[in-house]
Amino acid sequence: MSSTPFGNLAGAALEPGAFVDAARAEPAIRAAADADPSSPEYRAKAQDAAEKFEAYFVAQMLEQMRRITRQLSGEEASFSARANEDMLDMADRMVADSLARQRAFGIADVILRQILPPPALKEAASPVASQSA
Prior knowledge:
Helix content is 61%, strand content 3%. It is mainly alpha-helical and 133 residues long. Helix 2 packs antiparallel against helix 3 and helix 2 runs antiparallel to helix 4. The model is unreliable at 1-14 and 120-130 (pLDDT under 50).
């Protein structure tokens, strides 16, 4: 059996750097590949995944900005205190989740344009375009 470093594609959490058995992940991959992209269930899952990715991306960005701010601040600055670091991290994740729900950065929209089929053209515009050609 082969393993892949991409994590557990079937949904269970693994430790960082852990490997997953490809034979166990294959049914989940096949099910996702066989799903109808125009179905409401597929669209809902895709939108949820895209928003979660945007939230993760924004949270990472906020974490890096806070880390750099701590490094650049002096010893006596309020940013250098680590007393409330856990609460600030949680607040950053909540802000990231809120921004992702609003699609403030547009990352989820770009992902959805890539994985969902384009909307159908309006019926009224189609005959005019074909007659003028």
